From TrEMBL:
Domain Secretion system C-terminal sorting: 754-825
Gene Ontology biological process terms from the UniProt entry: carbohydrate metabolic process
Organism this protein belongs to: Natronoflexus pectinivorans
Family matches, as InterPro entries: aBig_2 (IPR046780), ConA-like_dom_sf (IPR013320), GH43_arabinanases (IPR050727), Glyco_hydro_beta-prop_sf (IPR023296), Secre_tail (IPR026444)
Protein name: Putative secreted protein (Por secretion system target)
All residue ranges annotated as the Atrophied bacterial Ig domain in the record: 276-346, 367-440
GO molecular function: hydrolase activity, hydrolyzing O-glycosyl compounds
Keyword annotations of the record: Glycosidase, Hydrolase
Length: 828
């Protein structure tokens, strides 16, 4: 090698070393800028997951994915999805060792909160580092960030000792946000997307909390608080220094990319989840949505003659082959779009004969035809263009058009109605017959709500309220107790009243024997009562440890309820119990013949697969299935349901939580509205001191109906049963006062008739002889308020009542201001 070649090679080597040095130096500087005091970092990378364990980037701090929290990939990013079932990430106690050393610090993370999330409830913690998950009682310190008002707080006790920095506005929803809390000496600052939005004085450092033991992402330090459901997080970081504003800005650089990735997934999900009904065999016009949530949809068709871009279908002629059409949907949001093709097959028209056969075969009556309590939705045209004409052999009960005129009289049983459908097209026709059984009138006229008032002195006692419609309740006895608790209980207080009407005509009440001002939350007994009139009761105290040695150490015997076992012909009592070292379990046992105790030792009724505390059981029997509603505690609080085809075993817990609020709830009760298939699920929203009411037709899907409900009292954990007019009159005579005085009418049916009753949209009122302008039809609610009035202008009047709230009303016919008749109707 020549000297020149050697010098050339040395110069090349020098350049390589220089470039490597510059690269290493640059990486070191960049790393120092991005990791200035970084002591905890969860990237949520799927490679860091093992089972339900999620490790931080250092591998030193394993966290636990709890409930339905999971790690996902979103485009090029990794995220933590907290899910809809009270999911959270348990960071573990070891993280507390670094939290306990913090003075100045910074906590940063990306957060996405769904637009549908209700942030008004207490809780909504994004992150929490504390010494208990029951801070209200333990009072041993925590620091947290809540999305409820975009607030940081720290306390060495609980809320009474808090110092906070509060933006006083709900955390932004529907878009990714980069959230930073920075503590620099005695100043705390909240940053959103790199911008400081609020600062305040905070003199308590995390080190004052010690090594925190209860450290979470997505879970509160306060038991019963709302979880941050359906929230997403990315890139969670804790620094042991106060980052500069430029460093904080650098941390939020991926926010727009995260948002774009999220929108793209939302578009893809919308496309994949869109179901076009009967797309494989198109016979009628299609419903092609133009908007799904906040996503716009545009359509194109490969064969607009057969399916237009608006979904209008033109079928091929008789004898032609089916036609395949590609419908292209373009889903758009925030400047992004995603296309998806749906393949539809349009079938040709059938002959008249085949059309009649097919439409006849496809007739399905929607509704409970074995126990009909509502109008039938009858089809009058078939898919193949046929005409369907109906006739009823009992039009006084069920009209030719499927209108339920009246129920079968109480005590008679169901009424059989034969419905005949004549299906025709051209010269072809055929007949199908259907049997429908109209339900028997249950014979009830009102509702009794039994409840207690609270945890304070004198509040744990039985109270009554009444309602005509199951929505609007009025307290009896001036909202004072109807049974003195110290005369029936061993502890001086009773809670959670439940009344059963048994086949023997007697009423059976069960209660929790507990007086919180003296006992706290520990008790050992229940109270059993028996009555023939809901007013005069015999009573017995059923003490579990005294009667059953295997439960000598129970610390809680809570919320008993009862149900009549048709097979055993006995009353089954079910309730929750807890023993030391365990959790609350729902048990059952049969009451003895005189209802003064239990026949045998309690047996476990519900086996929760997650082995979590379960209380407040409530069993409802519907269509051959027992639905056990209950509340879970400790690992996601809320109301769930388990189902079984047997009363005493085989219950399978179902998802999801059924409460329609993020607030803490307990004490659910399900009751069916009289002579309807509508079920009411109500529950105690105890942190707010209110009740929430929901309705369902299938015990699966529940809709909030709080706007239909009124109460002149504030109940705690109560239950509702239907009662007769005679029972209502007796209760009002015993406990009534001015607030429960409702006009009494002599209901007679001589001058006019109303159908259908119950009704939902329209009333047909026949009133022959009341034709002139001086005859008036008035509708009153049960509080005496006139809600509607029209002139009676012919032999019959049709009233649109769809705008009125569900419930009972009084329809009054008068002439020249003289009341001729009043009838009670039910709207639903």
């Amino acid at each position: 090698m020549s000297l020149i070649e050697l010098i050339r090679d040395l110069m090349i080597l020098r350049d390589v070393f220089f470039r490597v040095f510059v690269l290493i130096f640059s990486l070191t500087i960049a790393n120092a800028e991005n990791n200035n005091g970084l002591i905890l970092h969860y990237s949520f990378n799927g490679n860091n997951v093992s089972g339900n364990s999620l490790y931080d980037e250092s591998g030193q701090f394993p966290a636990v994915l709890s409930n339905d929290a999971k790690v996902e990939q979103l485009g090029d990013f990794f995220i933590l999805n907290l899910g809809s079932q009270n999911g959270y990430l348990n960071l573990g106690a070891s993280v507390g060792e670094i939290i306990g050393e913090l003075e100045d610090f910074t906590i940063a993370t990306y957060v996405f909160i769904d637009a549908a999330a209700d942030l008004s409830a207490h809780g909504q913690f994004v992150w929490n580092f504390g010494n208990s998950d029951d801070m209200a009682n333990q009072r041993n310190g925590a620091m947290f960030f809540s999305a409820r008002t975009t607030r940081f707080a720290i306390s060495e006790a609980h809320w009474t000792g808090e110092q906070s920095v509060n933006y006083n506005s709900a955390f932004p929803q529907s878009t990714w946000q980069h959230l930073v809390y920075r503590q620099s000496e005695n100043t705390g600052t909240i940053f959103l997307n790199g911008v400081p939005v609020v600062s305040g004085t905070v003199t308590i450092a995390p080190s004052a909390l010690g090594n925190t033991t209860h450290n979470f992402i997505g879970k509160s330090a306060y038991r019963g608080d709302a979880y941050l459901r359906n929230a997403l997080l990315s890139d969670f970081r804790v620094y042991d220094s106060a980052l500069t504003e430029s460093e904080i800005i650098n941390l939020e650089s991926n926010r727009s990319n995260l948002q774009q990735a999220l929108v793209l997934r939302q578009l893809e999900d919308a496309a994949n989840e869109l179901l076009i009904e009967n797309i494989d065999k198109v016979l009628v016009d299609l419903t092609l949505p133009l908007v799904i949530g906040n996503i716009a949809v545009e359509w194109e068709s490969s064969a607009p003659h057969f399916i237009s871009k608006t979904g209008v279908v033109t079928r091929p002629d008789i004898g032609d082959d089916p036609v395949e059409v590609v419908l292209t949907a373009v889903f758009s949001k925030e400047g992004q779009s995603f296309s998806y093709d749906y393949v539809a097959t349009v079938y040709p028209w059938l002959s008249d004969h085949s059309s009649v056969e097919m439409d006849a075969d496809n007739i399905k009556l929607e509704g409970n035809i074995n126990n009909l309590r509502a109008n039938l939705e009858l089809p009058f045209t078939g898919t193949e263009g046929t005409t369907i004409i109906w006739s009823s052999d009992q039009p006084g009960f069920l009209s030719d058009n499927g209108i339920l005129i009246t129920l079968s009289p109480n005590g008679v049983g169901k009424q059989l109605v034969n419905l005949t459908a004549t299906i025709s097209k051209g010269t072809e026709s055929m007949v199908r017959n259907f049997e429908v059984f109209v339900a028997e009138d249950e014979g009830y006229d009102a509702y009794l709500f039994a409840y207690f008032l609270g945890n304070g002195p004198g509040q744990e006692a039985v109270h009554y309220a009444i309602s005509y419609d199951g929505y609007n309740f009025t307290a009896l006895n001036n909202n004072e107790a109807v049974i003195s608790p110290d005369t029936i209980s061993s502890r001086g207080g009773v809670r959670d009243p439940h009344i059963l009407r048994a086949p023997d005509g007697m009423f059976y009440m069960v209660l929790t024997d507990l007086y919180v001002p003296n006992d706290g939350w520990s008790n050992h007994a229940m109270v059993f009562l028996k009555s023939e009139n809901l007013i005069d009761w015999t009573h017995s105290v059923v003490n579990i440890p005294q009667n059953f040695s295997e439960f000598y150490d129970v610390t809680r015997v809570w919320a008993p309820q009862s149900i009549f076992d048709e097979e055993e012909e006995k009353i089954m009592v079910y309730f929750s119990m807890r023993q030391p070292g365990g959790y609350d379990i729902i048990y059952y046992a049969y009451a003895n013949e005189d209802f003064t105790g239990l026949e045998s030792s309690p047996q476990q009724l519900l086996y929760h697969p997650n082995e979590v505390a379960c209380i407040d059981g409530d069993i409802v029997y519907k269509d051959g299935v027992y639905h056990l509603f209950f509340k879970t505690e400790g690992a996601g609080n809320g109301i769930k349901k388990a189902v079984s085809d047997q009363l005493t075993e085989g219950y399978v817990v179902q998802e999801p939580f059924l409460q329609q609020t993020n607030d803490a709830v307990e004490g659910s009760c399900v009751y069916r509205l009289i002579n309807t298939d509508t079920y009411i699920l109500m529950y105690d929203v105890y942190m707010r001191g209110t009740y929430q009411f929901t309705k369902s037709y299938d015990l699966e899907n529940f809709e909030i109906i709080d706007h239909l409900v009124s109460m002149d009292f504030y109940p705690r954990h109560g239950t509702v049963i239907p009662i007769t007019q005679a029972e209502l009159n007796a209760l009002k005579a015993a406990y009534g006062d001015e607030s429960t005085t409702i006009r009494d009418f002599n209901f007679k049916k001589q001058n006019f008739s109303i159908s259908p009753n119950p009704a939902s949209d329209y009333l047909l009122i026949n009133h022959p002889g009341y034709l002139n302008d001086e005859s008036v039809i008035s509708i009153y609610n049960l509080s005496g308020l006139k809600v509607m009035e029209v002139e009676a202008g012919s032999d019959e009047t049709v009233l649109n009542v769809s705008h009125l709230k569900p419930g009972y009303y009084l329809v009054q016919l008068s002439k020249r201001n003289v009341v001729s008749e009043v009838q009670k109707i039910l709207l639903r």
